[in-house]
Write a structure and sequence with these properties.
Rossmann fold; seven-stranded antiparallel sheet; 2 domains; elongated; alpha+beta; single chain; 19 strands; D-amino Acid Aminotransferase, Chain A, domain 1
Amino acid sequence: MKLSSKIIIEGPNGVGKTTISKMLADYFGTGYYSPYSGTNSLYYKWFDNPHEALNQVQNILSSLPSTGIFDRYHLTPQTMVNQPLTSLKYINDGDLTVLLDAEPKTLKNRLAQKPTTENIDAIGYYRSHYNRLADNWNALHIRTDNMLPRQIVDVIVERYNQIKERKEFLLKEGKSKIIHQKSDRMIITLIPTLTTYTYQKHQIINGTEVLRNSIFEIFAGELLKNNISIIDYKYISENKYSSEFCFTFPFEIIVKSRATGTTLINCPGLFTKNMPFFSTVVRFDYRREPNDIAIPSDYVRNYGVDTGFLKDNSLKAFHLLKTILANIGYELIDLCFIYGFDLNGNIKIVSEISPDGMRIIKNGESFDKDLFRYDYDVSKIIVNWNKLLNDLRSR
């Protein structure tokens, strides 16, 4: 079989990157490349002078061929995660990124058999970065603890064929949605679950996935119509939609018009409950489990993203939806946006916009996930979300 693109093998030391890469090169009869072999000084430079290190990384990547097997393509997972737009130009639509993963104990046992000492990611420091790398274009995440090298190669070859033949494949499965990829489209299936980490609750509530999708369809259409940067939502079925593929940033933007939720929990005494803000607040949160953490906008700027655009686009989206809801008697209090960028580098809202990620009230009554947070009966959630949907449709 002839290889017509790149297969990139990533993962921590001891996971088997070199073994698998060389086996794949033999299978496809193509070149094996280890771009950072013997470049420990460049690795350490990333921590001392990331901008200079990133320039050197780009020089290395630009000199590599467009086909072959690559034993690590990114200097560290952070060089893709922290400056994602700079790496985009080196990724082609037929490329496959494979993340090999294993438990620290497995890595330690494998590294102990090597003649030279290598650092082990004993506490899983890089795991979150590698997991985000696995959300990338045509990505495949493989746990190697109980797999033979031949089995791993077979899985990679199967995924490569799916990409080459433009077949649909599973990209990611989360608590609230399942994401498949087909060619350059993402197919998102909503799961009927509601989750709140703050209140430590997770529950299946049938029917919420249909309501979330229907409300999102309306909101996405309004934002697109008003030239706000968001994915090109396409309805598929009652619990499914599609959009162009986007890489997702590891942070979210919260827009608030009142002091509610985590503002009161994390800043006790700073504001009174439901106090209106003099001007709409925009907050950046780093996404992590179990709880996100607020970060300065300068962190996002150093990550490599224009915070001015994110803030401006988020405020425009928030105020447009606030006006739409106000016209039918509702008040939009806060809203969460997750951003990403498409294969052309265009930054846009990629998250679902529904009562699952916003606060909406009418005459003092909740029409959002607060009904779930505060233990209202399941039927109340369905009734109120249905009322919101019907009011939006009857405008």
